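In response to reviewer comment 3 from the previous cycle, which asked for concrete evidence that the modeling workflow produces usable outputs, we include below a single protein chain processed end to end. The sequence was submitted unchanged, and the resulting structure tokens are shown without manual editing.
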Amino acid sequence: MRKIVFLVLMIAFSFGISACTYQTDPLDNPQPEFFTLFYTGDGYTIYKRIDIDEEKMYALIGFLVESEKGTTCTMGLYHLENYIVFYNDEYYDLQAGAQMKLYQGNDLVNMGIDISCRDN
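The workflow returned the following structure tokens.
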């Protein structure tokens, strides 16, 4: 039983470290032809995938998104796969856009992107 608990803790720790070291590198192969304009912001544009497979299952991993004080927001793999951000002539995923301070989690909710936010 101790080994199982230790293994679960190590996996959780690994995900936590990978989220902390996430870099804002542009996407290698964004395929913008599969996306349509979703939102135009101040110096950036968000695109949404045209054909989203509603039957596809995504792992329930929450990636933190900077939010207003007192609020915690997370997005999942669904958001990273189905939205892209165009900024400075490069394409990024949604989390990278938040890390570059283009928007916060609350802003994404106001745009109509269904991420999870809760008051602390």
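The two ends are 33 Å apart (CA to CA). We consider this sufficient to address the reviewer's concern, and the full set will be provided in the supplementary archive.
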